[in-house]
Amino acid sequence: MTDHEITETLDAKGLSCPMPVVKTKQTIDTLAAGETLEVLATDAGSLSDLAGWADTTEGVELLDQVDEGDVYRHVVRKTA
């Protein structure tokens, strides 16, 4: 995983689709532009779900995704 300065971490472990995306949106809305959110999830679908959400959502950028076996780490930056 690339080193990114993490502003906040969201623990979405144990949540299944669509909740990791819903919780990510709720949390990213509380951050200021330029801040970075790390999302920890156990739902394998979160890899495609969060990537798709970031691609279609203005003001966010998906910086990284890592499959660590039992936990998926996502790093999202609020850009606006």
How would you portray this structure in words?
The protein is α+β, with helices and mostly antiparallel strands and 80 residues long. The chain has a single domain, classed as Translation Initiation Factor IF3 (2-Layer Sandwich). The chain contains 2 helices and 4 strands, in the order βαβαββ. The protein has helices at residues 19-28, 46-56; strands spanning 8-12, 36-41, 60-67, 72-78. The protein has a 4-stranded mixed sheet with strand order 1-2-4-3, with helices on one face. The protein is globular and about 30 Å long.
Sum this structure up briefly:
Pfam families: TusA. This protein has 80 residues and is an alpha+beta fold.
Overall form: globular
What profile does the largest beta sheet have? 4 strands, mixed
Oligomeric status of the shown chains? single chain
Number of strands: 4
Name of the CATH superfamily: TusA-like domain
Measured by DSSP, the beta-strand proportion falls in 25-35%
Mean pLDDT: 95
Radius of gyration: 11 Å
Family: Belongs to the sulfur carrier protein TusA family.
Domain UPF0033: 10-34
Keywords: Transferase
Protein name: Sulfurtransferase TusA family protein
